Amino acid sequence: MVQAVVGANWGDEGKGKVTDLLAEKSDVVVRFQGGANAGHTIINDFGRFSLHLLPSGVFHQDVVNVIGPGVALNVEALLRELDQLEAGGVPSPRLMISDRAQVLLPYHVDFDKFEEERLGKQSFGSTKSGIAPFYSDKYAKTGLQVCQLYDEEILRERLEIALVKKNALLEHLYHKEPVDLEKMVAYLQGLAETIRPMVADTTLFLHEADRAGKVILLEGQLGTLRDPDHGIYPYTTSSSPLAGFGCIGAGVSPMSLKKIYAVTKAYSSAVGAGPFVSEIFGDAAKELRDRGGDKGEYGATTGRPRSVGWFDAVATRYGVMVQGATEVVLTNLDVLGYLDEIPVCVGYETKEGEIIRNFPATPVLMHCKPVLDTLPGWKQDIRDVKRYEDLPENCKKYVDFIESTCGVPIHMVSNGPKRSDILYR
Ligand code: GDP
């Protein structure tokens, strides 16, 4: 049976924590898209960790963790993360890397930086980890699969083809040094050896695991609104963070996907550029940002302050719908305990003054203003609460509101950053 944990919004909803929690009852955890650009913060018995590329099942020794073919594999970043786990006292995880995953190359990172510099004010707020150039090459068929690293003839030929274009751009568009073919071949052959014991046909492994009745958890990065097709294009990421794509990026049958957990926060946060209708500014934003998450709302990969805002019913309902969620997991509910009244965004007012309740495409979205309602606050620290029934009435009403907005049940409510801070409803 396959399940997916995905984001309903702009990312950073708390998927890492939820995956870590659900991994307890899973056999396999798979990353199916994205790379080391965004991060998941996980706080458990081993300590506090920021995972970027590793699946969030790595803290469970019984779980097999898989990097699927849909992932942008930055080998150096992966090795660094494994070292961090070791330094943190986490036993060496069981990890498999798809032989069909493609390798994120150093020049992808360079091109990402150079392109953001070239775009200046019109840049997309990239984390500059090479993700957009990587996926461009993948779909232009100038990428490199892990399996190709082990055949020198193929490796050399693939790189030769790619470098003609890369070096022309480097020299004439960005005015930088060209990439040396021989150095790149040697570098990649060295990397290939470091991961050799982990490389496998993970697609076959996952199909067999599924047939044997194992529980397979797909872990998404970012959220619906960063999907290249259904999100706020062009302020999106370059691979699909949708559960539907999870089957492809991981390599499992779509018919096996039985549960889709869409994670959302009790307020909104976003990192990177693009329209964000319920965003707040000034002191109110600073207060929410500093209280949010486990150490304030600052990017796990970049340390950038995240934009914050009130819960956006329009965007979240859309995010949950597009994910095809079977349930919503609500996180960061504890953060709102300081407010007398909690504003929520229940509609958008377009440039023409029309009130809309369905999430529009980007050109309309850019000019939308939030239509706010307020719900009563609960003015209480709820982190110590252990049973859902013991939450303050207004807090439960807030959860009821989000559930009715999303149209799918909420069974899990997270009231703190630690693995144990979870209430079952
Ligand atoms: P992900 O990328 O979706 O895994 O999310 P991130 O890890 O980037 O961001 C979520 C942030 O919220 C992290 O700082 C988590 O430690 C934190 N977090 C998760 N659940 C809760 C919660 O219920 N309460 C609080 N206060 N923080 C939480």
Task: Describe the fold and architecture.
The chain has 425 residues and is an alpha/beta fold. The protein has 3 domains: 2-101 and 198-261, Adenylosuccinate Synthetase, subunit A, domain 1 (Adenylosuccinate Synthetase, Chain A, domain 1); 102-195, Adenylosuccinate Synthetase, subunit A, domain 2 (Orthogonal Bundle); 264-424, Adenylosuccinate Synthetase, Chain A, domain 3. The protein contains 12 helices and 20 strands. A 10-stranded mixed sheet has the order 9-7-5-2-10-1-11-15-19-20, sandwiched between helices. Strands 14, 16, 17 and 18 form a 4-stranded mixed sheet that branches. It has a two-stranded antiparallel sheet with strand order 3-4. Helix 5 (152-172) crosses helix 6. Guanosine-5'-diphosphate (GDP) binds next to helix 1 and strand 3.
Write the layout of secondary structure elements.
Layout: E1 2-7, H1 15-23, E2 28-31, E3 40-44, E4 47-51, E5 64-67, E6 72-73, H2 75-87, E7 94-98, E8 102-103, H3 106-119, H4 131-139, H5 152-172, H6 181-195, E9 199-200, H7 202-211, E10 216-223, H8 243-250, E11 257-265, E12 268-270, H9 282-291, E13 307-309, E14 311-312, H10 313-323, E15 327-331, E16 341-349, E17 355-356, H11 362-365, E18 369-376, H12 393-406, E19 410-414, E20 422-424
Parallel strand pairs: 1-10, 1-11, 2-5, 2-10, 5-7, 6-8, 7-9, 11-15, 14-16, 15-19
Antiparallel strand pairs: 3-4, 12-13, 16-17, 16-18, 19-20
Helix pairs in contact: 3-4, 5-6
The structure holds guanosine-5'-diphosphate.
Guanosine-5'-diphosphate is lined by residues 7, 11-17, 38-41, 43, 293-294, 300, 331-332, 334-335, 414-417, 421.
